[in-house]
Write a structure and sequence with these properties.
- The chain is an all-alpha fold.
- The protein has one domain.
- The chain is built from 7 helices and no strands.
Length: 191
Amino acid sequence: MDFLLHWDHDLFLLINKSFQNTFFDTVMPVLRNRYFWIPFYVGVITYIFTRYSSSKASYYILFIVSAVVFTDLTSGQVLKKFVRRERPCHEPTLDRIAEIRIHCSRSYSFPSSHAANHFGLAVILMALFGKNRKKFALLFYGWAALISFAQIYVGVHFPLDIIGGALLGVIIVRLYLIMIAPILNKLAIET
């Protein structure tokens, strides 16, 4: 375990310090801000409503929102409170070393809710887009990875927080998709 935590700290510092440049200092805080992505979310919703009937689109939006709520509650309200890992910005060993580029929450660090939510969202969007999923794979997973990388760069998460959050989001949403499979199959037949 000590080796893993040491690796985690070293990788954090590599991303947080060694990758430092003016472009990243400007862009990364923006990329991890949820409000920046509102046009993207609106675009996804618009695509869903233009591609599918309004009743089917409404189901899809409900499934998407429910999946994100499940990942967020599990990561933020259950696991973070159970694990109780400090964020890098509050870690005493990194106090004068880490570059903290945004306000740092007092909430715990593991797992990253940003990673859980965005990777979970990528999974459900891929499932809902059916035949077009390969076209969107790089877009959705790349988007989730970029937001997750930004969390490390700005100093609010360790890499293991991101890996744990990403795995959690993928697992939760895959299980959720199994639960809603009968409804999705019925909606697919109606198309």
